[in-house]
Amino acid sequence: MECKAYAQAKIGFAGRTVDWIEDELDLAADNLRNLAIEQAGGIGHERIRLWLHDTGLTLEQAAEALGISRRMLIYYRDGEKPIPRAIWLACLGWKAVRPTCPTLPQQIPSAAALHA
To answer: Which of 58, 79, 53, 81 is nearest to 70 (CA)?
Structure first.
């Protein structure tokens, strides 16, 4: 897309999209914000959505696993609050270890132990 196309951006439907070419090229505002956060080195809300999908955890299970409230997890998932680095690292750790009991493991199991 040429630079002049960026200058043609307009607020779209109900202020929830950015439209460049009517009925052809638009982007939901939350997705545009997610891309901007990711490009700036932050942690976009789509990562939480994908983590929830990949792990199959419910909101309640995921919140408990991360040690946060269900409401805070929803804020992160919906992009209403920035995701702290520690929360994203906890998501990655949980996915790597996939604990099966209420107590947390003392270390990350070896690859062989994970696939046994």
So the answer is: 58
- Residues 61 and 80 grouped into a single domain: yes
CA–CA distance, 98 with 100 (Å, rounded to integer): 6
Contact 42, 82 (CB under 8 A): yes
pLDDT per residue as tens digits for the range 19-31: 887 777 777 888 8
Helix axes 29-39, 45-55, angle to 10 degrees: 100
1-12 burial, b if ≥16 CB within 10 A, otherwise e? eeeeeeeeeeeb
CA atoms within a 13 Å half-sphere pointing along the CA-CB vector of 87: 23
Q: Is residue 116 part of a domain?
A: no
Same domain, 75 and 50: yes
The pLDDT of 9-18, averaged and rounded, is 81
